[in-house]
Amino acid sequence: MRRIEALTETQIDRYSRQILLAQVGGTGMKKLLGARVTIVGAGGLGCPAAQVLASAGVGTIRIIDGDRVELSNLPRQFLHHTKDVGRFKVDSIKEKIEAMNPDVTVEEVRMFANQANIDDLLAGSDYVIEACDGQAAKFLVNDACIHLGISFTIAGVVQFYGQILSVVPGRTRCLRCLFREPAPEDPQNSCSGAGVMGAAPGMAGMIQANEAIKSIIGAGALQTDKLLIFNLIDCSFDFLDIAALPKCAACAQPQEPFYKTFDYGACVTVCHLGPHKL
Q: What CATH class does 35-260 carry?
């Protein structure tokens, strides 16, 4: 985390409502401005997460995605506009964030995360937000972050449903403690196959960003050891306890980068997660 010595008068004015919060204050605001949060994915989850982080004054946001904006993305990927169709998603987000807040530096990475590059892509991060589409990619981010010792939040949505889990390596349960390994990809259980309402990734992405903010300023409790499940049709929120898994492939031996050789299968770009499966 980069050290910020003092806030400028402009920053005190811009962030005045946050600074008033007992959990933030001037000290917390300087932590936010000095932090780097990496978002893996620039779509339905990544867009709201990036917007909340940038508005809050997180000083450096690294966004990783090799995809381009499509017309069908626009109802749920709120930072992309009609004129952005065909552009790299990371370039589209960078433009919006730089216009939103000049305090924020955007590090855009026009590639997909994979086993070969994941360590380099996450290096230097104070927090990671997993906003990928494919289930296999979610496990890759989980496994790499645990090995690297970087706290992170995973989320996924489909239809009106969403699921969220935060992980503090070495202290809390992870995605593998709950699901062991990626299940076979099923296009019928995806946003392209089953549909999605934009409010679902919007809410999930904002919660992910708030988890990152809490971690950076050291306030509140993260959404750990319980899977948060929301249903926007019924406006219901439930929690699923996650039991410890002594032989978890990621947690049991975090010093081993097993994800370098693990067979994740095809990391297809479909937005997974039904109401009962992360």
A: alpha beta
